[in-house]
Amino acid sequence: MADFQIYQSYQRLLKNEDLSTPLAAILALTEMMKQSNAGTMFELLNELKGNAEALSRHSSNPIGLNAGCELFIEFITLFPHDAASFSELKTELIRQGQQYAGQALAYRAKIAELAFDFIKDDSILTHSYSRVVLQTLLMAHKRKRISVFVTEARPRGMGIKTAEMLMAAGIPCTVVLDSAVAYAIDKVDFVLMGSEAVVESGGLVNAVGSNQIAIIAKAANKPFYALAESYKFHRMFPLSQYDLPSHNPGVLSFPQTPSARAHPASSGLSSESSSILSDNGSPIKITQEDIARNNPDVDYTRPDLISLVFSDVGSLTPEGVSQYLVGMFAG
Amino acid sequence: MASDPQSAANQRIVEDLVSRLRRRQLVGSRATALETLLVLRQVVSKTRFSNLDQLVNVIQSVGRRLVEAQPKEHSVGNTVRKVLHHIREEYHTASEQPIVESSFSIAKFVLQGQPRKQATIPRSETRVPLKENDSNDPDSFARVLKPVLMEAIQDVFDELETVYDNISKNAKDHIHSDEIILTLGMSRTVQSFLKSAAHYRNYTVIVAETAPSYGGREMAASLSSAGISTFLVPDSSIYALMSRVNKVILGAHAILANGGMFATSGSLLAATAARSYSTPVVVCAGQFKLTPLWNLYHEYGALDFGDPNAVLGFEEGDLVNKVDVVNPYYDYVRPELLDVFITNYGDHPPSSIYRLLKETYDDEDNEL
Amino acid sequence: MPQAGPKYEPASAEAQSLTKAQKRAEGRARQEQQRAAKAAQKQQPQSGLGAPGTTGSSSSKSKGTVPKKPVSESNKTPSAAASSSKDAPTTLREGAGGLDGLSDGPKSRGLRIFSHFGLPKTPGHQIKGDIHPAIVKLGLQFSEFKICGANARCIATLTAFKMVIQDYVTPPHNTLSRHLMTHLSPQITHLVTARPMSVTMGNAIRQLKLEISGSDIDLPEQDAKDALCQKIDNYIRDRIIIADEVIEDLAVKKIKDEDVVLTYARSSLVEKIILRAHSLNKRFSVIVVDSRPLLEGKALLHSLTSTVPPIPCTYALLPALPSLITDADIVLLGAHSLHANGSVYSRAGTAMVAMLAKEHTVPVMLCCETYKFSETVMLDGFGKNELAPTKFSPASPKSNSNLEVLNPLYDSTPASCITAVVTEVGLIPPTSISSIPLALGRTTL
């Protein structure tokens, strides 16, 4: 029961467009704390850890919220416990959590300022939908002349949303097929990418397709910049693509039996293939939903492909990120 | 703030340096750093201040004026930042209050992930309590602090004066017998490095001329008169000879926060050629060249341009009208092309320059 | 140096015996040189750059002159050898002022490894034997660098040879086809002493020898000579002039309007291509990158800006290249020769232009006629190179015994940096050059 509640409140908080997953996780935890009846610090921490795990279990892509939960729990562990009573302490912690979430909303503007120094009258390539990238581009548009290429970011097509918002602001913008990035890269001056999490190695976890774009940018000698708020720094070290927590063996697996599907393909793209019959006579039809389900949501970009990470704590080289993380969690 | 006659005196010496910088009567990283330090010493000694912020503001404004006079001489700004860093350190050790954490919040917690500054040895034995903003005795604060600050500035002076010696200390460990070293242009740091190694080792140096300043000729003459067997070659043969070169040693004009550097024009050619032969590229530079700025390399205009007459002079006749001449003074070299920086405080790979910067300067001074 | 008098082999009338005689003559010449060299070396153990080991001014008529040179203060021939060897006997200095054991004797290892480059040549070298005045004049022009560039040298050589052939009279009891080559050999050697032979000259001369040995014995002498001259003209016309035109046609298609073309030093072919593109009313601009020692780019600038309307040009020296390469859309380069592994032997500095262009993904087009192809494999710019004469060196303030000035003229660009090679048979990747003869049904290019 308690599990279900926390996930519900998390979902509810996410409805606020401005909140990103780590912040929503922190706020969800504070809400849980309000209702908790733990008597000691030890019990409270256990509850928090249990709830964090529950959250991550329910979500298919738990990386962002893991980062937020870990940060909050680490903070609580290190917080000086010298308040008069436990309930006062709890109130203080809840207040801290909410205050941070409020402050953190201003981080995007800070990052936009930092990144702005690197932008001249350039062509920029970006991927999918990222609020911090959007804010940076809108700010840059006010003072410089930029043009933007946005990748479509199938299967969810979030890139189209980005393009629409940019065009509404008057920025020259066009949508590029995911497969046409290598074709377009020579027209671009640099690549700007948001992030779901920045990991211990200095690498980036972001919507699937980011790794591809980073490799192409490296091959074409174009700089690749990642924008990440500091609460997205996550103490995880993936050794490969398949080492991510969002990975499950079902991804990119070969379907066993061709099953007959009668409903048409979704997202407006019709797969008008002629019905190909399998051995047992049932027609084989692959729908967009099947593809979306069978493909990964996020991928991991290696640190040697990233030129700089812009964060509210400053511009960092990928090596600099790990120094921060060690300082936070081991210092 | 400071009373008028003193600030006028300050103005004069600052204006003098500003005009010299603007007219390029003062050129070269070490020379400008030394001059800046002299001016700052005067300013600190003559300024009246009753709390730390006043002094910091004065120095920051002086620094701003100097940097604006000649933005391409980064060592000016670096020296100002270094002095500010020392001032804050001295203040914190001298005053009895510890650094107060105003509040403990998650944001601060994240920032604590910053590399910690190294603890300094407290200079003042007698801990006279510092009274800030004392209305009875406005100078007490300054009186206590000034001698300590003067010592700190003297330390920076000493560092600047002994730069060449410290860098050359370990030269013989970096150069071995019968090696062939490639260098280019005229850099006093590299020159002293190579000469010091020549006392212990027998090796050969190839110097590229580095058109159009032809600083390489001066370097070659100086090295050969010190007994080092030297070859003077034009820039076009750098790649042709690279297959026989064991090491490339370059000087730097400024070291940037990402580990890259500004260096004399031609360095990027040498570094790229060296990379294709996997030859190590070594940079000799004093730590006063560390610049906490990132984005300079993006601006084409951040490169300085020299006199086009050196490239295509008026003796070419009417060509001069019909042709654009480009003569950039500096190159930006990416950190991936460099292997190590030999500084007066040890050897560092480009990836740790960022950490070094955080330790040497304070964040609030990055934008003067 | 034995004069190659008419060597008459009555018995065997095949081509082989004559080439044997020719080889013998060359071998004898070589031995003389080496003997002179050894004598010279004994005289001056510490000469600079291993001078006596190479062909050059030191192997003059008699061995006696060589030891005199260091002692004499004759500054009429300001060769680097003279000045450095002047120092040598007088100051028995050590290798390079070091303390770890290389005390006496030869130069440090560093200076020795450049010794195979050969001396910068002195102008006004000796004339050995009966050299045709056209060849003498040509030799002088070569050594003064008045004629510079692979194509120019080849055409000049062949033109001079035409005059030699016309003036040639077959001695009695000889046939033209056998004797002419031996007559030409000393002329060729004379040219080589002025400047090392270019691959183009080598290929052309080899073709000429083939033609000579294949000429009909029964033809009257004047007809045979005319036929040979005609063949030479055809060679120049087909392999150089017309080939250039075909290359221009192909290359011009790759230059589009609003392009920025970057080129290095001065290649006759690239100059022609640019002028042709301009005459086709394409609107583009040119960046000329130049470098010492020859600073040939200035001459290219003159010719490009003399067009009407003048082509917009930018000029810079080699160290400025990284700032300019980002603006370039295409890089056009010329070559001295192209080798079997695809590497390009070309003016010093070309390798760096190609390397930087590749890093910035700017396509590099090499313009080269097929007669420049050489069967050898070139590994790096060190194996074979040439030094510019001292007149191109800066004035050294003092003749410092530790300071040597080197001006290598060539370097070798690896095939990976070249995007495409434009030849008269079409655009090919650089590594395919060795399969062209087969494709054309010939055994060699």
TrEMBL record, chain A:
Subcellular location: Cytoplasm, Cytosol
MF term (GO), any: translation initiation factor activity
InterPro entries named among the record's database cross-references: eIF2B_alpha/beta/delta, elF-2B_alpha_N, IF-2B-related, IF_2B-like_C, NagB/RpiA_transferase-like
Ranges of Low complexity composition bias in the record: 266-281
The family this protein is said to belong to: Belongs to the eIF-2B alpha/beta/delta subunits family.
Subunit structure comment from the entry: Component of the translation initiation factor 2B (eIF2B) complex which is a heterodecamer of two sets of five different subunits: alpha, beta, gamma, delta and epsilon. Subunits alpha, beta and delta comprise a regulatory subcomplex and subunits epsilon and gamma comprise a catalytic subcomplex. Within the complex, the hexameric regulatory complex resides at the center, with the two heterodimeric catalytic subcomplexes bound on opposite sides.
Protein name: Translation initiation factor eIF2B subunit alpha
TrEMBL record, chain B:
Principal place of residence: cytoplasm
Location(s) in or outside the cell: Cytoplasm, Cytosol
Keywords: Cytoplasm, Initiation factor, Protein biosynthesis
Pfam families reported in the protein's UniProt record: IF-2B
GO cellular component term of the entry, any: eukaryotic translation initiation factor 2B complex
InterPro entries in the cross-refs: eIF2B_beta_subunit (IPR051855), IF-2B-related (IPR000649), IF_2B-like_C (IPR042529), NagB/RpiA_transferase-like (IPR037171)
GO molecular function: guanyl-nucleotide exchange factor activity; translation initiation factor activity
Similarity field: Belongs to the eIF-2B alpha/beta/delta subunits family.
Quaternary data: Component of the translation initiation factor 2B (eIF2B) complex which is a heterodecamer of two sets of five different subunits: alpha, beta, gamma, delta and epsilon. Subunits alpha, beta and delta comprise a regulatory subcomplex and subunits epsilon and gamma comprise a catalytic subcomplex. Within the complex, the hexameric regulatory complex resides at the center, with the two heterodimeric catalytic subcomplexes bound on opposite sides.
Entry protein name: Translation initiation factor eIF2B subunit beta
Automatic annotation (TrEMBL), chain C:
Family, similarity comment: Belongs to the eIF-2B alpha/beta/delta subunits family.
Subunit structure: Component of the translation initiation factor 2B (eIF2B) complex which is a heterodecamer of two sets of five different subunits: alpha, beta, gamma, delta and epsilon. Subunits alpha, beta and delta comprise a regulatory subcomplex and subunits epsilon and gamma comprise a catalytic subcomplex. Within the complex, the hexameric regulatory complex resides at the center, with the two heterodimeric catalytic subcomplexes bound on opposite sides.
Keyword tags: Cytoplasm, Initiation factor, Protein biosynthesis
Cross-referenced InterPro entries: IF-2B-related (IPR000649), IF_2B-like_C (IPR042529), NagB/RpiA_transferase-like (IPR037171)
PANTHER family: TRANSLATION INITIATION FACTOR EIF-2B, TRANSLATION INITIATION FACTOR EIF-2B SUBUNIT DELTA
Coiled-coil segments: none
UniProt-recorded name of the protein: Translation initiation factor eIF2B subunit delta
Gene Ontology molecular-function annotations: translation initiation factor activity
Organism in which the protein naturally occurs: Lentinula aciculospora
Compositional bias of kind Low complexity: 52-69
Gene Ontology annotations for the cellular component aspect, listed alphabetically: cytosol
Biased composition (Basic and acidic residues): 23-35
Superkingdom to which the source organism belongs: Eukaryota
Region annotation (Disordered) ranges: 1-107
Subcellular location: Cytoplasm, Cytosol
